[in-house]
Amino acid sequence: MHELSIVxxxxxxxxxxxxxxxxxxxxxxxxxxxxxxxxxxVEAFRFAFEMTRPGTPLADAELEIEEPAAQCVCxxxxxxxxxxxxxxxxxYCGSPEIRLEGGQDLILESIELEDATSLEATSxxxxxxxxxxxxxxxxxxxxxxxxxxxxxxxxxxx
Length: 158
Ligand SMILES: [Zn+2]
Prior knowledge:
Helix content: 10-25%
Strand order of the largest sheet: 2-1-6
CATH topology: hypothetical protein PF0899 fold
Number of domains: 1
Distance between the termini: 54 Å
Bound molecules: zinc ion
Structural class: alpha+beta
Low-confidence stretches: 117-143
Radius of gyration: 21 Å
Number of helices: 3
């Protein structure tokens, strides 16, 4: 599972960027693009992320993954068409002279820090006291929230 090494590299990269920004807050949200042809399986990636993140600033981060489609660019009819899976011929004219563009990268889109908001309000006040480390492992009563906001179904007119 090469997703694990990708996740490790990603987490390192995020930590680097957070440090470079001069922040130390935890990451609350991470947005990524994983192209459909990047060779990264999103499921495996999420799994590897869950395994890797404890103890990192990303421990509680929400992971948002977009999977952008690629473009099939036809050399014969010059049309572009978005493709969701690998194609061997142009969907319009059937020519095999195609090039696939995009969808091959894993892009770190944005990192949202917990710090960012408190950075404006107070001047980077750290709630934790040095020396007194929290003993972890007592947050078992945290339950994941069900996804909401998808209840926009209209009742049928009658
Ligand atoms: Zn074509």
